[in-house]
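Long-time lurker, first post. I've been practising inverse folding by hand and with some scripts of my own, and I keep getting stuck on stretches where the C-alpha cells seem ambiguous. Below is the full C-alpha cell string for one chain I'm working on. Before anyone asks, I'm not after the true native sequence, just a reasonable design that respects the backbone. If someone could post their per-position residues I'd love to compare against what I wrote down in my notebook.
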C-alpha cells in the first residue's frame, strides 16, 4: 500500500479491541513507530511527524489501547506493558522489515519491553523519560499530578478533550502506585543489542538525570543525551532541540546498517 504525507487513518481490531492508527509516508521507507506517554495519545507527536517525513521516514502513530480514539480498557500493566507490547506485535505482524521505535515515558517503557521480547523486529530505538526503577522524584512527580487532577478543572478538561469519558488518569495512577516497590528493569535491559538513545530533560519532574544515565548504561549499545533545561514533556515542549537530535541519531543508525533515505 502506498501512503502519502496526509496520512491514512484506520481503526483496526487488534487482540479483541480497537486501535486507532495514522500512517504517513511510503511503505518503501524505513518505518518509525511513535509511542505516546501515559496520559497522552498519538496527537502528542504532532511536532515530530512532518520532520520525519521530510527526512525520508514512514511514520505510524497510534492511540494505545485505552487512550484517545482506541477502545477503553480496565487496567494497565506497567512497567513492562505486556498488553501494549502484544498490540504492537500484531500491528507489525505482516511487516518483515525491522522498525525504529520512539517512545516517551510509558511509551518508552513499551519500546524497551518490545525490543527485549522481539529483538529481530527492532532496528533501533529512542527512549524519552522512561522509568526503569522507582526513585523518590518519580513518586513526588506522580503526587503532583494527582493534585493537579484533583484541583485543576483545566487539567481534567484537557484529558476529557483527548480521551472522552475514559478514566485515563485513575487507571494510570492505580497501575503505577500498586506495583511492588522494588521493581527494576535494568537486568533485562542488558539483553538489548540494537542502538538505543536515551533522552531526558535535566528538569524532569518525574526522574533525576541519573535515571537516564542508568538506563543507557544498562543497554550494551546505549547512549544518553540530557537536555538541561527540559522537563518531562520534552518532545512537545522542546521540539526545536529534540527534533534535530532525533534525526541525527536516526541517520547514523541507518548509515550503520547501510539503508539510504
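-- Answer (accepted) --
I ran through it position by position. Result:
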Amino acid at each position: 500500500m502506498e501512503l502519502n504525507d496526509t496520512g491514512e487513518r484506520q481503526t483496526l481490531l487488534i487482540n479483541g479491541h480497537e486501535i486507532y492508527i495514522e500512517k504517513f509516508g511510503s511503505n518503501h521507507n524505513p518505518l518509525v513507530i511513535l509511542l505516546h506517554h501515559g496520559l497522552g495519545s498519538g496527537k502528542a507527536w504532532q511536532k515530530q511527524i512532518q520532520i520525519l517525513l521530510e527526512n525520508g521516514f514512514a511514520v505510524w502513530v497510534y492511540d494505545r489501547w485505552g487512550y484517545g480514539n482506541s477502545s477503553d480498557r480496565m487496567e494497565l500493566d506497567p512497567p513492562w506493558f505486556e498488553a501494549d507490547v502484544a498490540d504492537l506485535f500484531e500491528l507489525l505482524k505482516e511487516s518483515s522489515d525491522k522498525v525504529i521505535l520512539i517512545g516517551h515515558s510509558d511509551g518508552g517503557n513499551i519500546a524497551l519491553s518490545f525490543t527485549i521480547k522481539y529483538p529481530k523486529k527492532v532496528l533501533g530505538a529512542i527512549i524519552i523519560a522512561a522509568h526503569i526503577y522507582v526513585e523518590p522524584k518519580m513518586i513526588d512527580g506522580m503526587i503532583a499530578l494527582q493534585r493537579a487532577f484533583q484541583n485543576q478543572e483545566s487539567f481534567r478538561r484537557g484529558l476529557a478533550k483527548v480521551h472522552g469519558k475514559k478514566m485515563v488518569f485513575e487507571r494510570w495512577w492505580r497501575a503505577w502506585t500498586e506495583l511492588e516497590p522494588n521493581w527494576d528493569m535494568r537486568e533485562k535491559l542488558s539483553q538489548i543489542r540494537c542502538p538505543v538513545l536515551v533522552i531526558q530533560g535535566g528538569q524532569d519532574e518525574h526522574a533525576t538525570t541519573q535515571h537516564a544515565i542508568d538506563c543507557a548504561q544498562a543497554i550494551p549499545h546505549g547512549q544518553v543525551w540530557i537536555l538541561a533545561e527540559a522537563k518531562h514533556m520534552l518532545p512537545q515542549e522542546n521540539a526545536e532541540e529534540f527534533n534535530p537530535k532525533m534525526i541525527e541519531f536516526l541517520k547514523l543508525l541507518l548509515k550503520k546498517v547501510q539503508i539510504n533515505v
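A couple of notes from the structure itself: The domain at 8-255 is CATH 3.40.50.1820 (Rossmann fold). The chain has a mean pLDDT of 94. Happy to go over any region you disagree with.
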